[in-house]
Amino acid sequence: MRLKTFFATYLLFLCILFSSVGIVSVYMTSSQVSMLKEKSAGQYQAIAHSLSRDIAVLYGRGMDLVDFSLAVDNLVSGYARYYIRQNVHISIADLTLSGQGNLLSEGEVSFVIQGAEYFIYIAGFLPGRLGYFQLNYSLNVTENIADMQNIQRILLFSAIVFSIVAAFALYFILSSIFKPLSIVAKASRKIANGQFGERINVKGNNELAQVALDFNKMAGKVERQIIFLEEEAVSKQQFVDNFAHEIRTPLTSIYGYAEYLQKASLDEKETIESAGYIMDEANHMRKIANSLLELATLRNYQPVKSPISIPALFEDIGQTMEASLRKHNVRMVCQSDIDTIDGQEDLIRSLLLNLCCNALKACPPAGGNIRLEAKVLPNGTLISVIDDGCGIPKESLPEIAEPFYRVDKSRSREDGGIGLGLTLCNKIAEVHNAEMAVESTVGEGTSVHVTFTTS
User: The domain 303-453 belongs to what CATH superfamily?
Assistant: First the structure.
C-alpha cells in the first residue's frame, strides 16, 4: 500500500513538474522568437525607408539606367557592410529586370532553420515610387536560440535534481504516515496465520489509536470464536468420525485372522499364534480408542513419547498386513537405517498402518510393491511409505488431507471409508511436531513422507 501510494503520488508529481517545465520552455521559445521577429521587423522597416530615400536621391539625378543600377549596387553594398556587424544580411533585387512582378507580400516575416543555424527572413518592396525594388533581410539568431536552449537545459536539470530530492522526501513522509498502518497490517497477518493472541500496543489518543483499540477488540472476538469453533468441531465431529474410521483397520485384521482360523486347517501352534494376533489387534483397538478420545477432547494434545524400535515396528506392521498382502498379491519391503524414534507407539503405529493400508488399496489388482523406509536426516528422521499404485491426480493433492475427501469416490464407498484416514495421519504427525508431505504421479505411484524433527 505504501509503495503504491508512493509511486502514484510521485508519478503525478513528475507529470505536473515536467509538464510545467515543458509549458515554460514552449512559452520561452515562443516569446523569444516573437521578440526577435518584432526586432527584425522594426529594423527592416528602418532599413527599407532609409534605402528608399537614398535610392530616390540617386534616381533624381537623372542618371542613365546602367549608371543608376551601378550606383544602387554600391549603395546597397555599403548598407550590407554596415549591418553585417549586427549579423544582418541584406540584398536588393530589381523585379522589373528579373521579370517576377509583384509576387511577394510586403514585409513577409519567416523563421527558418538551416542545418544548425537559425535565421529570420523578411522580404518586401521598398516604399514609395520605388516599389519595384525588393529588399531581402536576413538576421542570424543562432546565438540567441543557443542561449535560450542553455536556459532550458538548466531548467530541465534543475527539475530532475528537484524530482530526486522530492522522491526521498516523499518516501520519508509516507513512511512516517504509514508506519502505524504497517503495525496494524503486521498484526493482521499474524492473526491470519493463526496467532490469534496477537494484539497491537496502543499509544496516544488519536484516530490511529482508536483504530488499534477497535482492532484489538475485533481480534479478541475472533480468537474466542475460533477457539469455540475448534472445540466444537473437535469434540463433536472429529472424535466420532476419526474413531469410527480408525478402528476399521484392526477390525479388518481381526476378521482376517478369524477367517483364517475358520477356513484353514491349522495345528495347535498356528491356532495359538493366530489367536495371539487377534488379541494384539483388540488391544491395539483399545489403545487407539483411548488415544482418539484424548485427541478429541484435548485442545493441544501432548503425546506420551518413548523410544520406539523402528525395525520391530516395521516387522509388526508387516505381520499385521500379511494376510491382506498375500490376498492382493502385494509385496512389502521394509528398510530402516535407524534404530529408534521418540513418539507415542500406538499413534505412530496407527499412522504407518493407515498409510500402508492406503498404499495397498492403490496397488493394481495384478499385484504391486510397498516400501516402508526410515532414514536419518541432518535435523531429524524421515519415515516414508511408497507404493507403485495408481497415483493421485495433481489437482487432488492439496485436498487429500481434508476431512471426508475421497480421490476415488466409488472405491471409497466399496471399502466403506469415510475419508478421514489421511486427516487422522496428518493430526498424529502434527502432535508429534512432524510434517507429512505427499508426492504422487498418476500411473506411477505415491510417496508419503513423514519428517520428525529433533526440535
Answer: Histidine kinase-like ATPase, C-terminal domain (3.30.565.10)
- How do residues 393-445 score in pLDDT, each as one tens digit? 888 888 777 655 666 655 543 454 445 567 778 888 888 889 999 999 988 89
* Residues in contact with 193: Cβ distance below 8 Å, sequence separation at least 6, in sequence order: none
Read off the pTM.
Answer: 0.41
Amino acid present at 149 = Q
Q: How far apart are CA 358 and CA 328, in angstroms?
A: 13
User: What is the C-alpha separation between 432 and 339, in angstroms, rounded?
Assistant: 18
CA 80 vs. chain centroid, Å, equals 71
The fold adopted by the segment(s) 196-299 is Helix Hairpins (1.10.287)
H helix intervals, 61-141? 65-83, 95-98
- CATH placement of domain 2-159: 3.30.450
First to last CA, the chain: 37
Domains of the chain, residue spans: 2-159, 196-299, 303-453
Sign of the dihedral through C-alpha 170, 176, 180, 185: positive
